[in-house]
Amino acid sequence: MPLPSPTSLGLPAKPVAVGSPPPTLSVAPETTNPPAAESSTTASSSTAAARSNTCAMCTSEARYTCPRCSTRTCSLPCSKAHKAAASCSGVRDPAAFVPLKSYTQGTWDGDYAWLESTRRQVAEWGQGLTADEVAAAGRGGAARGGRGGGRGGGAGRAPAKRGRLDGLRWAIGDIGAEVDLLPDGMQRRKTNQSSWNPKTRALYLTVGMVYGDLAPSATHPRVAVLPTSTTLASLVPEGLGADLVFALPYHVPRRRSDTAPAPKTRAFFPPLDGAAPLSTALKGTAFVEFPVVHVFAASAWKSALDSGDLVVMPLLESTKRKAEADDGESKRAKVEAAESSSAPAAPAPPTAATALAGLGDYDSDDEADEAEDEDVATGGGDITLSPRMASALGAALVADFGE
After folding, report:
1. Does the structure show a pLDDT above 60 at 362?
2. Are residues 373 and 247 in the same domain?
3. Does the keyword Zinc-finger belong to this entry (predicted)?
């Protein structure tokens, strides 16, 4: 079939040079590739088909993916059925490998939450132990260690394999104070640089000083407490004078659930001795992370007490002394109970018969002779008197009542 000419199609004729062959039209071979619009439609339909796969438990369209094993399900009943059939927990494995191209914001959030929960769990280990329990564990380790107590044992010595914070808590408890430690990441924990060295038995405490209107507040990172102890007066800047009152805010430790809570007003422990070593001044007190001592002028302290702006609470009783007192009371109670059980019973009120019996034998000689002739028959319960005894009894009756 001849091809149509441009003129027949209404197109202008192309000029042709003289002697050149007539132009020819080439027809491109047929191709199976669809137009661009059709190819994009086909790609979107294939992606939708990949997303709308079927549920693993039924033939419905899947809508959910198991975080643990990536099994696709369509509903909550199918998800529960999948967990029961495959013994799947449905919790994402935080240690499972995730390719970088598949790592999303949700994956990052899950990893962060898992690491944070692990950190908090590690930080909370050992916080419930008391100083007495740590000391008792040390004594128990010494007993198990054989002769000499072994390394890290011995009474009155902190366990060598305890953590740094447990050793610090034990050392503070050994000087008669108590401390509550916060989880890692808290600002007060970051500020605290207190430390305890079990080898040199050196205790350093971070001490905060709040001067109010007297001077700017200050924090001393490492104040020596053991073996040589610093005084609070030596931490005061020059020029404040000597008539000062050092007070520590009242705090109830977490493990003292039986202690009365602090009042609503500002409460302090009794004033600390500024000239005494810290190892002595802090006895009977409690604080969070490290002590923060408030410094008052003596007149301002007295005025605040009189007006009721602050109250003074008693020092905390040492758990060791309390245990010894309770042990002493229990021992005394046991001794009193033993004494009461071994004591003889109180005598009953004397009767007439017992009173006469206490005087001894008062019978006459004749009655004694007559008693020798008595014949008592105990078989039937009757008493048979001899003729001589019956005659004497009759004479006595006649004398008393007459003939």
Report:
1. no
2. no
3. yes
